[in-house]
Amino acid sequence: MTTQQIPVVVLAGFLGAGKTTLLNHLLRSARGTRIGVMVNDFGDIGIDAMTVAGQVGSTVSLGNGCLCCAVDASELDEYLEVLTRPESRLDVIVIEASGLAEPQELVRMVLASENERIVYGGLVEVVDAAEFGATRQRHPGTDRHLAVADLVVVNKADRVSADELRSVREAVAGLAGRAAVIEASHGRVDPELLFDRVVPDGEIEGQMSIEDVLYGSDDAAEHAHASYETVSLTASTPLHPRRLMAFLDSRPEGLYRIKGFIDLGAADPANRYTVHAVGRFLRFYPEPWSAGEERLTQLVLIGSGIDAAGLRKELAACELSGPRDVPDEAGMWGLLRYVPQTEEEPEETLF
Known about the structure:
This protein is of the alpha/beta class.
């Protein structure tokens, strides 16, 4: 890739679910990560935008390297253009949808955008554990929204009993299909579940920052990583493109993100393939191997309730088994569908 694309995450959920609380948590936890926030307000007064940024209007600096702007859906592309300018140096953009918005339409707008500096970062749906049943009655669209989510955050988990939380989570999982489902209190979701956090110069990765001390708590520290797992996979043998696509197409429920590099051996000896997958969305980016670089497949898989041993076994089954195990000429076709072209149909990027 000639330039690093900026992931655009859509944050949705009905009124009162805790979207703005979660967003503010992400901003406080940003440290060296520069976050662009687009608050999708439809009313005359942008209450959520004021809560996040302190004022409404043009793009606002939040003082920690992050930027915020309140926009109508029709202005989405215009502000994506503003936020993705090189001088903004943003690492991720989060669109907080109005509580009454159709998140699927915002996702389609992101996918249809002609801005080459962005890439879809997933639809995160927030639900209120204490009000989930009532929300489904008041808002029949809840089930439809959950069905298209890539990640569901069952928020306010501290406000219900263990049995109630289990019941809500099971109901959400049944409606959300293959989406990952995690629990949270006060919107405390580890940012690294949603995007790659940038470690500032001079900071040791994993150490507590001043923000951790000021805004964190023992409960937050204890449970920050409890809701999801990260699995790292490495293969020194090239992968068969057809079997790799079968692996990606059949990946289990709860597997939210996949990132890393793929070695396809003789199928394309000149290039390694960067892979970016979130929910049902998939992209491959071919780039030349560096001279002398060790040719490995290195993947990181992030999700909730995933089977690390099973995933390693499935990846191992994708490896070439010997001299006679050679991909045929059509073996790359399935994979190449997910390599960005000059003109592509956005729907083809979804499984």
